[in-house]
Specification:
Elements lengths: L1 E3 L2 E4 L3 E3 L8 H9 L4 E3 L3 E2 H5 L3 H5 L10 E6 L3 H12 L5 E6 L4 H4 L11 H14 L4 E6 L9 H10 L5 E4 L14 H8 L7 E4 L5 H9 L5 E4 L9 H11 L8 H19 L1 H15 L7 H9 L3 H15 L1
Parallel strand pairs: 3-4, 3-11, 4-6, 5-6, 6-7, 7-8, 8-9, 9-10, 10-11
Antiparallel strand pairs: 1-2
Helix pairs in contact: 1-11, 4-6, 7-8, 9-10, 11-12, 11-14, 13-14
């Protein structure tokens, strides 16, 4: 049974990864319905929160129905991160996650995200200070190291645990790899198998099939799988993995009608939460996967991603039903 502090997550929980412009409340709701055990907000800039930046503040929106939910923050300035914890506490998340893994240049250049992998003492210092500053459990998401020559993840994980981190999720790539190549799970298993480790160790990276999730559980012995890119436009992935765990068989893919219904709901919720312009824009990245594998679909997908009003997108959904049902 995996636990973050006193929060029970079940045996081998499936976690929806924090993803910029993806894991917002509408998408989290859909994934939760399909069996995601834990969800995270998009990552939030500590400096943005302190400045009262509207976009950062909005990302603090969480709802009772999605618990357990973690709010993920990033930054490299101790004072700012402690102020951020105080702001985040008001939203009453189940835990606060620190992003030490984002490889994007604009984040790394500020020494935040994966940038902090160049300064492990600062990573440990920030974590310890935040643990002491709040009653809410602090967790960490990170990568194997900055590059192949600086992989010390066993020691790093142990030090983070020792200063009070309640769980660690590890992406099986270095920062230098970005998202290229294959994620290595062996070093994550080495962290889990360290006899000094007692907090949950979650694996992240390349979990894109039920078989791989099963490998992560049974061969690598990790405490849970964090699902990122495989879930985009595919909230059914969580149900598919759980069905495979239970039966050893693949769940039938969603029908065209189910795909259209879910895409419509997603868009409706996104518009309600974020307004028509942003709602339309931020659901576009999902349409490729919502309708993946349907032959001769290109013209419909093109219409979906270029339509500037919800009426036009809904019209395309109706065309899809007429054409493919």
């Amino acid at each position: 049974m995996a636990k973050i502090g006193e929060i029970e997550l079940g045996n081998f929980p499936l976690l929806l990864a924090p993803m910029e412009d993806v894991s917002d409340p509408p998408f989290r709701a859909l994934c939760k319905e399909q069996g995601a055990d834990v969800v995270y907000t998009e990552f939030i800039s500590s400096e943005g929160l302190i400045r009262d930046a509207a976009k950062s503040i909005q990302k603090l929106d969480i709802y009772e129905s999605e618990r357990p939910v973690g709010i993920q923050i990033f930054g490299a300035n101790l004072e700012s991160m402690l102020k951020t914890v105080e702001i985040v506490e008001r939203s009453k998340p189940d835990f606060i996650d620190i992003n030490y893994g984002c490889p994007v240049k604009k984040v790394v250049n500020k020494g935040a995200g994966a940038g902090i992998l160049k300064d492990i003492p600062l990573m440990v210092k920030l974590t310890e200070a935040m643990v002491k500053h709040t009653h809410i459990p602090i967790t960490v998401k990170t990568r194997l190291g900055w590059d192949e020559d600086s992989i010390h993840i066993i020691e790093v994980a142990e030090r983070l645990q020792d200063v009070g981190a309640k769980a660690i999720a590890i992406h099986g790539r270095t920062r230098s790899q970005m998202y290229k190549g294959i994620a290595k799970w062996e070093p994550i298993a080495d962290v889990k198998n360290n006899p000094r480790m007692f907090i949950p160790v979650f694996g992240n990276g390349d979990v894109d099939s039920p078989e791989k999730a099963l490998l992560m559980r049974d061969k690598f012995g990790l405490d849970g799988a964090m699902i990122g890119r495989a879930s985009i436009g595919n909230p059914w992935f969580f149900a598919q993995v759980k069905h495979f765990f239970k039966t050893g068989e693949h769940l039938s893919p969603p029908t065209i009608a189910e795909r259209v219904k879910t895409a419509k709901r997603h868009l409706e919720m996104a518009i309600k939460w974020n307004g028509e312009h942003t709602g339309l824009f931020e659901t576009r990245r999902h349409y490729t996967n919502y309708f993946k594998g349907i032959p001769h679909f290109k013209e419909y997908r093109l219409k979906m991603v270029t339509s500037d009003s919800k009426e036009d997108v809904f019209k395309v959904f109706e065309e899809v039903l007429e054409k493919f049902l």
